[in-house]
Structure to design on (95 residues):
C-alpha cells in the first residue's frame, strides 16, 4: 500500500504529464486553426459575430443629453449620470 508522500509524488508527476499533453494538443489545435483561417480567408468578426456571415462593428451612439453647466454628455444608455438623475431629461436634450 502506498503512503501519503508516494501518492503526492504520483499526483505531481500526473499533473506535469497532463500539463505537457495539454500544451502539445493546444499548440496542434492552434496550428490547425491557423491553416483553416488562411485557407478560407476567415476574419475574426466572421467567427465571433452573433449572426453568421456578418462582421461585428462598433457604431458610436449619438449623444442625446448635455449638462449645460459642465458640458458633460450622455447617450441616454446605461445608468444615468448624477447630473441628470432624478431630473426632467427633456431639459437636457441636445437640439
Amino acid at each position: 500500500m502506498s503512503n501519503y508522500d508516494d501518492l503526492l509524488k504520483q499526483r505531481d508527476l500526473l499533473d506535469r504529464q497532463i500539463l505537457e499533453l495539454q500544451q502539445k494538443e493546444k499548440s496542434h489545435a492552434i496550428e490547425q486553426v491557423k491553416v483553416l483561417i488562411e485557407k478560407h480567408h476567415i476574419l475574426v468578426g466572421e467567427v465571433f459575430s452573433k449572426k453568421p456571415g456578418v462582421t461585428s462593428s462598433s457604431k458610436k451612439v449619438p449623444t442625446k443629453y448635455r449638462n449645460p453647466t459642465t458640458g458633460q454628455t450622455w447617450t441616454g444608455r446605461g445608468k444615468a449620470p448624477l447630473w441628470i438623475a432624478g431630473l426632467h431629461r427633456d431639459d437636457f436634450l441636445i437640439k
